[in-house]
Amino acid sequence: MSTTDIAVIGLMARLPQDVREFDAAFFGYSAEEAADLDPQHRMFLECAYHAAERAGYVLESWDGVAGIYGSANVSWQLLARPRPGTESLFGNTPDGLVARAAYELDVTGPCVTVQAACASSLVAVHMAAQDLLGFQCDLALAGGVSIEDAGSGVGIVVLRRMADALADGDHVHAVIKGSAVANDGRRRARASGCGAAGAREAALGALAAAGVEPDDVGHVEPHVPGDRTETATLSEVYPAALVGSASNPRLGQASGVLALIQTVVAVEHGWEPSVAGFPSVGSRPAGSLAAVAAAGSGGAHAHVVLAQAPPADVVPVEQEWHLVPLSAKTPAALRVVTDELREHLALHEVRLADVAHTLQVGRKALPYRTFAVCRDFDVVTGPVRTPDFSSLVFSFTGENIAADVLTAHRLMTAGIQPVAVLGTGFGEYSAACVAGTLTLDEAVALAKARGSEERYEKAVCNAQPRAGQLPLLSGSTGAVVTEDEVTDPRHWLALADDLCPAVPQLGALVVDVSTVVDQRSFLETVGSLWSRGVDVAWEAITPAGVRRVPLPGYPFERRCW
Length: 561
Fold this sequence. Notes:
Blueprint: E1 6-14, E2 21-22, H1 31-36, H2 39-55, E3 66-72, H3 76-80, H4 86-90, H5 95-105, E4 111-113, H6 120-133, E5 139-148, E6 151-161, H7 162-167, E7 174-183, H8 197-210, E8 217-221, H9 228-237, E9 242-243, H10 255-268, E10 289-296, E11 300-307, E12 322-328, H11 331-347, H12 352-361, E13 368-374, E14 392-396, H13 401-413, E15 420-423, H14 427-435, H15 440-449, H16 453-462, E16 472-473, H17 483-486, H18 489-495, E17 509-512, H19 519-531, E18 559-560
């Protein structure tokens, strides 16, 4: 692995049948706002959201720095119907394309629109790779969108430094070994034209950046399949390579990244027979690498050299049960999310632990929620809930003092923080221990001595109760036990009079920690709380060895605008 290797960890492409389609409600746009927005902005925004999902990252809650590099064609909507006002202009020019995606995804790193005609999106990939290597960002989305009469499409790839991707268990589709850009300058017939000199220099620059020889490249994807001049130039640079025919220059600013995505998929799977210009699966070209070229009016050229990703280190996951959280903006979308996951699991060979991990950390928690706790691909979800809690109280009703305290601390480590604790019967000692009023040894001693008045009085005398970090609620009234009460031995002596009082009614979401007795019930408790709106620190309960895996993206409920 080279220190300049860039991992492609996510990709998304779309060739829409109707470019007017957009899920405005998902992004909180009114009908008027959606109609006023350039369809290219709408397509790019949805694609960016899906690409981040595909990579397994929620950028607004990720602790790294992300960037977005994108390109768009001229807004034919704006040219056809000029609109006054700053907002309309922002929503219908290329300048606003990436800025809008950065706002909606809360991306705070470099976010720039790239304009280099049909080479734009591959230039954007090159710029993103360079900024990653320069540590301007830690993750980058790069791509482009175009709407033209000849064809429309959008594509985005998600990139990371290879070392970071491997360390974080990302799924690597392919590796960018090197990239370069160049221009023909005056070596073209006219200012708006495009020549061959820049294409050759971009290819040689990418090879030099990759540190590989031309003979190592077995496939090269041209910008214009069948173009004699470009084919001759690429064949000269890559004498052993097959010149492909999968790219489509009619897709304008999106053509370069879409050709890149096709080639990444081909490289990942050992070449695809279903894509024109690629060898059949298993019959690798003479070299082990592939290259993609893009050219644009004005003499711009971009070139990328790709390699297969190294085999992932698969570490066994020593956990039987796994929590699968699912959410959506609407009940109908949630049903689709669930159905598409089940279909994906039936068709793809993946580990349930990786699926659960990806859905936990790589999907935004939306209002309608459900979950499943399972140990195989029989994903049976519970009821659909929406966030409805205002505060959380831990309740303890059991006699296993040490186990209850351990469970409570596991829940709190997972980010599930109660505002108070309540115990009834023997559970009052567990509650006092979790509150910090008693040590574990003191709580155990009191619980063991409770059946004997003499022993119990001695245990109370030996204990040194103190004000805790959490409010301790009375097991009989639900009121907060004051510092004076908690340090008064009479309070603890009175507990022995009633072994099984009723749990008082509280205006809070109460979790009976004592019912959590094994891994499955622990995960069911976490899932239930998450579905009610409690934030969970998923990393705290993630087993070792899990990885992010590609899963179906959000099912946008599109309508035409």
